[in-house]
Amino acid sequence: MVSDNKDGLFQRLRVGLSKTQRLLTGSFDDLLQPDREVDEALWEELEEALILADMGVASTSQLIENLRDRVKKEGMVNAQEIYPLLRQQIANILEPYAIPLSPEVPGEHPFVVMVIGVNGSGKTTTIGKLAHRFATQGKRVLLAAADTFRAAAVEQLEIWSQRAGVDVVKHQKGADPSAVAFDAVSAAVSRDCHLLFIDTAGRLHTKENLMAELQKVKSVIAKKLSGAPHEVLLVLDATTGQNAIAQARTFHEAVGVTGIALIKLDSTSKGGIVVAVTQELGIPLRLVGVGEGIEDLQDFSTHSFVQALFNQTT
Question: What's the gap between Cα 194 and its chain centre?
Fold first, then answer.
């Protein structure tokens, strides 16, 4: 049964990454022909293919440099020999950052997750899917609607709370987000909840105000419960490409991001952003989203990602 579930998750990942897989492997198949020599033109074309897949200039440059060193050291002259090296180098970049969300804290509950990101990135949906996952595992979960700026965010969170069978703490529209967070932590402690997910606003068009607000929310959480928030989870939309990295830097500087959920990978052919995010930010990649279904939000696995990206079987 466990094996069947893993196979099902991997198949979802393969389908979700199919757009990127077709773009990348199509380019690689064209470039890494068995009768082609390894020359400067090959390296330039390979670099272009990786950048087009949104792996980022810095990540791509490092990847190409590593490949050049390996090819030279092993005396390779056939372009096709680079293929397995390419897979391995991508895996090497990703592996240190493939750290799943582990909601365990020593001593008392709850484990507090402050979820941040721009409007439209998928924060609320991600919270809902995580709430469902952990509630299904028997965890006592509570949600907090601290995005009081956008009324639809509260309604959406309530819908997800009903699906997951968990409660949500909310205030009136326009209320102080910090007050919502404070009450939610109090409720989570008194109810002996295992997990508290706090939804936050993400209106970057007032960036300075937003960042100050998030800093205040984080500070209030910390004062109410020592050691919290235990996770500051940033939700990024993969379809925004390199803009996602710029967003991440802004949030990280303001509140200290501890983990990333990179979603909507199924909606882009540039899934190489996964490599760029890990390489350029150095922040753990907790989760990837490859579809709208509840099980399409998965713990990030280097092995599964690389296998799916290159259309290999497990």
Answer: 22
Predicted confidence band at 258 (pLDDT cuts at 50, 70, 90)? very high
DSSP 56: -
Average pLDDT, the chain: 90
Q: Return phi, psi of residue 291, to 5°.
A: 165, 180
Give ∠ CA 91-232-148 in degrees, rounded to 5. 135
Q: How far apart are CA 39 and CA 36, in angstroms?
A: 9
Furthest-apart CA pair in the chain: how many Å? Answer: 69
Residue-wise pLDDT for 174-232, tens only, equals 899 999 999 999 999 999 999 999 999 987 656 788 899 999 999 999 999 999 999 99
Distance between CA atoms of residues 283 and 285, nearest Å:
6
Give the type of residue at 234.
L
One-letter identity of residue 112: V
- Output the CA torsion 252→257→260→263 (10° steps): -60
Which pLDDT tens digit goes with each residue over 224-251?
999 999 999 999 999 998 889 999 999 9
CA distances (Å), 72 to each of 84, 91, 283, in order?
15, 20, 31
CB 287 within 8 Å of CB 126? yes
Task: Dihedral sign for Cα 223, 126, 121, 248, please.
Answer: positive
Q: Which of 311, 249, 313 is nearest to 276 (CA)?
A: 249
Nearest Cα residue to 160 out of 191, 193, 194, 126: 126
DSSP of 217-228, one letter per residue? Answer: HHHHHHHHSTT-
pTM given for the model:
0.92
Residue at token pair 């709430």? 131
CA–CA dist 304, 306 (Å, integer): 6
Sign of CA dihedral 17, 22, 27, 33: positive
